[in-house]
Amino acid sequence: MSEPMRDHPPVPRAILFSWGRIGAMLLRHFYVMRRSWTRLFELAYWPTAQMVLWGFITVFSMQRSSWVARASGVLLSAALLWDTLFRSNFGVSVSFLEELWARTLGQLFVSPLRVHELLISLLIMSGIRTIIGIVPAAILAIQLYGVSLFDLGLPLIAFFTNLLVMGWAIGLFSAGLVLRYGLAAESFCWGVVFLLAPLSGVYYPLDTLPVWLQPVALTLPSTYVFEGMRAVLFDHTFRLDLLAGAVGLNIFYLAVTWIFFLWIFRIALIRGLLMQQCE
Fold first, then answer.
1. Three-state secondary structure readout of 107-153
2. Is the pLDDT of residue 267 over 70?
3. How many whole angstroms separate alpha carbon 77 and alpha carbon 98?
4. Which of 26, 180, 242, 245 has the fewest other C-beta atoms within 10 Å?
5. Left, alpha or beta for 219 (phi > 0: left; psi -120 to 50: alpha)?
6. What span, in angstroms and rounded, lies between the C-alpha atoms of 228 and 155?
7. What is the dihedral angle through the alpha carbons of 161, 166, 168, 171, rounded to the nearest 10 degrees?
8. Which pLDDT score, from 0 to 100, does residue 59 have?
């Protein structure tokens, strides 16, 4: 026969609940945050980016209410083109992140794969993802709102291509940061592009920005694209000077970010980071 059950002493309350253990967990997260500047940056980034973007939209709406009243199609076209830039960047960075999440990056480079081949595959995949995402939305906008992005005509090809290439450059830069700092920096993959939205003049002309910010905005290819889009839709003019500005900046930025990624990749090889990607 089994022994009769013995009375056990009551469990001390401190074992069931302890503020000390809660404090220890908070301290753990504090130490992680203190050692990761990317996490600290992310905390302040999103509220600031939203405030700046919608602040400029509000200022523009107050100053030019008559322009806004006849610009619904322009705003919707701008939103679709902006999504081209976002998805292009996202296509590069997320395709790269998928290799890190699966922990396959080290195994890939045991094969004959070269880093240039990896980057080209990321760019092609980005283009495919972008087309799959944008075309259905553009067609649906015609049915729901009577606004066709295709009314831009041949200039649409130039605008789309420039935003696609700019997204590639941002994606390569973000992927390089993740390769260098680990998955703790993955928020940059979809966060960096929103930092550029207020400066790109997506929903308002360049002169809406403060005078001291306008030269900064002119360093972005996207600024030239959206100024060119408004010139086509409002003035029925395709400005080749704006196209040349966007193309020149895109070539420069794509070359710089390509070299940047190769440099980071070399550091990763030396330090053995390909097999040690973590938070």
1. HHCCCCCCHHHHHHHHHHHHHHHHHHHHHHHHHHHHHHHCCCHHHHC
2. yes
3. 31
4. 26
5. alpha
6. 9
7. -150
8. 63
Instruction: Please check whether residue 163 is in contact with residue 84, taking contact to mean a CB–CB distance below 8 angstroms.
Output: yes
Contacts of 74 (CB under 8 A, 6+ apart): 229, 230, 233, 234
Report the C-alpha dihedral over residues 69, 143, 201, 153, rounded to 10 degrees.
Answer: -110
- In this prediction the pTM is 0.75
Amino acid occupying residue 125:
M
* Mean pLDDT of the 212-234 span: 91
| Residue matched to tokens 């283009």 | 127
Does residue 38 contact residue 188 with C-beta atoms inside 8 Å? yes
Measured on CA atoms in the order 113, 115, 117, 121, is the torsion positive or negative? positive
Q: Is residue 260 classed exposed, middle or buried when 0-12, 13-18 and 19+ CB atoms within 10 A define those classes?
A: middle
Tokens standing for 128?
Answer: 């495919």
Query: Tens of pLDDT along 32-72?
Result: 666 665 556 655 555 565 556 555 665 665 566 555 555 55
Nearest to 151 by CA among 73, 205, 66: 73
List, in sequence order, every beta strand (DSSP E) within 52-175: none
Tokens of 7: 């009375």
Alpha-carbon distance of 168 to 91, in angstroms, equals 8
Count other Cβ atoms within 10 Å, centred on residue 180: 17
Q: Please say whether the beta carbons of 36 and 184 come within 8 A.
A: yes
**What type of residue is 213?**
L
CB-based contacts of 12, cutoff 8 Å, min separation 6: none
Supply the pLDDT for residue 1. 46
Whole-number average pLDDT of the chain: 77
